[in-house]
Predict the structure.
Amino acid sequence: VQLQASGGGLVQAWGSLRLSCAVSGRTFSSYFMGWFRQAPGKDREFVAQIMWSGRNTYYADSVKGRFTISRDSAKNTVYLQMNSLKPEDAAVYYCACRPNFSREYNYWGQGTLVTVSS
């Protein structure tokens, strides 16, 4: 599985960005796609996940109500719509894939940097 994240950039606080993650290569009959982020000096943290079927979305409390994860199966792409961005949302964002039979995210894309100015 190859994952290519894009869409990061500089945005003012309370602004919006949409991240994309293109999925290619081998896939699985059932799998989850997730977004994670890592700010400087902090551990990587979970942001959101979705089953490839489009069901069962799940969000970290810190982003619930502001971020929306979705997927376009025709384009093999997962999105993270980020609204009402806060300075504390600034981080490198990573997309990842977890087959349904796995307990961990095994496949990772390169990160895309999100900078939020106050």
User: Anything to note?
Assistant: The chain has no helices and eleven strands. The CA atoms of residues 63 and 87 lie 13 Å apart. The chain has a mean pLDDT of 95.
